[in-house]
Amino acid sequence: MEKRMEAIIDLCQTLPVTVDVGCDHGYVGLELLRSDKTNHLIACDISKPSLQKAINLLNDNGFTERFSARVGDGLSVINKGEKIDQVVIAGMGGMEIIHILKEFNKPNAIRNLVLQPMNQILQLREFLCTNGYEITRDLIIKEGDKFYHILSVRAGHQELSELELGFGAIYSDRKSKDFADWLKQKEKKTKAILKQMPKDNQKYDYFKHWLLNMKAIKQTLTEL
Ligand SMILES: C[S@@+](CC[C@H](N)C(=O)[O-])C[C@H]1O[C@@H](n2cnc3c(N)ncnc32)[C@H](O)[C@@H]1O
Predict the structure, then answer these.
(1) pTM surpassing 0.85?
(2) 140, 179 in Cβ contact below 8 A?
(3) How far is residue 138's CA from residue 153's CA, in Å, rounded to a whole number?
(4) By Cβ atoms counted within 10 A, which residue in 66, 122, 179, 216 is the most buried?
(5) Which runs of E-coded beta strand occur in the chain?
(6) Is 24's C-beta closer than 6 angstroms to any atom of ligand 1?
């Protein structure tokens, strides 16, 4: 199994009903059913052809009785009063994930939420901690030359510092080699940007500030 997929499945809990939002090919749902992490899967996607790929995969693997498939935007496919325990939203932009959670607006209805945004991780963390969620894990996974943020989240209250918004809320999840590699790459990119950016550019101070934050977070790693 791909490292990204493995980490997503790992952060999922064993719970009766799981919704895979933006299921596309259906591999996440297939693994959840195979591993018995969920009894019933609700596979959904905004695109009918994408959803059809998941339907075919799940049927071909003998899970016809254990899933339902729905076309629609985010969690709008969940019926009023329908009980769901866990939600996975993976492989989408951070702003799209925020849109889905804003529309749903019921943090307490979900026991575990696993999110894998493709970008805008800071904005997503900020949204979560100001809208009734608490981040319980906050991983960085390296697969090939790509880095993926994978979060588990539940209803709760959390205040995050600027460093936590930028680099993850869970201190122990910064211990990994993948996190160190990600930080090194980010530092290198930021230095390259600053090198070619005129000092009077309005974004210069912003990048300089985050470069200092990277140094500060590196310091915390030596304390782990
Ligand atoms: C890159 S695929 C990710 C597939 C799978 N979740 C994964 O992580 O491997 C993104 C999928 O999200 C779907 N999608 C995008 N916006 C959506 C929304 N608002 N509601 C439901 N599905 C959405 C797309 O149609 C596409 O199939």
Answers:
(1) yes
(2) yes
(3) 9
(4) 179
(5) 15-21, 38-45, 67-71, 86-92, 112-117, 133-143, 146-155
(6) yes
